[in-house]
Amino acid sequence: MSAAIIGAGIGGLATALALHKAGVAAVVYEQAAVLGEVGAGLSLTPNAVKALDWLGVGPQIRALADAPSQMLTCHYATGETLVAFDRSDTVQRYGAPYLQMHRADLHRVLLEEWQRISADGVRSDRRLVSLATGDSPDSPARLVFEDATANRHELVATAVIAADGLKSLVRSQLFGASAPRFGGFVAWRGLVPLDALRGVTLRAGSKVFAGPGRLFVRYPVRRGRLMNYVAFARVEQWQPEGWSQTGTVAEAAALLQGFHPEVHAILAATPEGRCHKWGLFAREPLPEWTRGCVALLGDAAHPMMPWFGQGAATALEDAVILGRCVMEGETAAGAPVNGTPLATAFRRYQRTRHARVTLIHHESAAGGERLSGMHPERLRDQPVRNEDSLGLFSYDPVSETLG
Fold it and tell me: What is the spatial distance between Cα 301 and Cα 47, in angstroms, rounded to a whole number?
């Protein structure tokens, strides 16, 4: 069996590692000419760390990541703590730590591990332009890629796993080309060297400043050497032609007028006053992610808003469950335990994952509305509805019962 994985991001590389554990040869195809992960910080909640441990990169991740001792939600203007979560006992409560790290570091660890296993396991400068499948669920897929010089490359694969993100071509071809929906927020993301904040009093861990229609999130990465931040503001529509662009700190600072001095000190320390700006987009959940020998994974299957920090986590969970479904085979009476066709394993993967990620999708969308409400002080008195209360951290993709 051979699998073509579309997209060399976090989900695609994790899937390659998972399929290797299941004994399936895979090649990852990436449209970018140079491999690398953009972005800044991301959260690796306990459910994600369990997945990374199963994939064999847990020690490398722990060596690079930061473990917040607490997570605070504060009033945007006064800095008063509205909600506090103690994260010092996360391992005891959930079986794995809560980590935060630079997205590029996570990507590099996954890439290096995959290249150690398969030196020729990633083909860059390969943009997928078409996909065709046969009438039978077990028919192979025919793919056509194009490189930067417009040369075409064709291949046949036993199976295709589409980890090609929110703009997934595979999703559009198989399930319709519905447009992503603008989520009502624009975000500005930046990184500040901690040395540039020596005169600022910073409480340990991560912090959210919640204001009317606006949010500011900050936490350290790279073992405390950098402060990662994201500013969010509610807007009516996303004007630029693209979904992301270079933004200015001055623009973010103007929108966060009235926020606590700590917020403006971090913004002011941003190197060259430049940051990354993008609109938040998502899609409605699909009723199915698989068709024959093709499966969607991560943002291609279930793109979600970022309020619960579960985007990368659910992609990692997907990869582990998919690998286990291939490895363990179908359990129905009379069906072989090993050597199950990948199409059957894909259907089982979908049955196992669909309800969970659909729940997280809906709750993530609602989370931003709660945090950016017109009266942030109400967060102090309302029942908390977050990853803890919903039991998201307790999930273990390694031991989850397969559907």
Answer: 19
Q: Single out the residue of 8, 14, 11, 10 nearest to residue 296, CA to CA.
A: 11
Q: What angle do CA 364, 163, 308 make, to 5 degrees?
A: 15
Backbone angles phi, psi at 180, to 5 degrees: -60, 150
How far apart are alpha carbons 313 and 220 in whole angstroms? 19
3-state secondary structure string, 175-195?
Answer: HCCCCCEEEEEEEEEEEEEHH
**Is beta strand 294-296 parallel, antiparallel or unpaired with respect to 159-162?**
parallel
pLDDT, residue 339, reads 44
Which pair of tokens denotes residue 118?
């398969």
DSSP secondary structure string, 57-106? Answer: -HHHHHHH-B--SEEEEEETTT--EEEEEE-TTHHHHHSS--EEEEHHHH
- How would you class 143 by CB atoms within 10 Å of its CB: exposed for 0-12, middle for 13-18, buried for 19 or more? buried
Q: Are 162 and 292 in contact (CB under 8 A)?
A: no
Distance CA 164, CA 109 (A): 19
Integer Cα distance of 183 and 20 in angstroms: 36
Residue type, 17: L
Note the pLDDT tens digit of each residue in 64-109: 999 999 999 999 999 999 999 999 999 999 999 999 999 999 999 9
Q: What is the pTM of this model?
A: 0.93
Question: Phi/psi at 310 (nearest 5 deg)?
Answer: -110, 10
Six token digits for residue 369: 């509305």
At residue 197, what is the residue type?
A: L
The tens digit of pLDDT for each residue in 114-123 reads: 999 999 999 9
| Distance, C-alpha 310 to centroid of its chain | 6
- Tokens 């993530």 — which residue? 364
Structure tokens at 139: 């028919």
Q: Name the nearest CA neighbour of 319 among 286, 357, 365.
A: 357
Pairing verdict, β 214-221 and 25-29: unpaired
Eight-class DSSP state of 229:
E
Rounded to an integer, what distance in angstroms lies between the CA atom of residue 402 and that of residue 220? 36
Residue ranges of alpha helices (H) inside 177-260 are 249-255
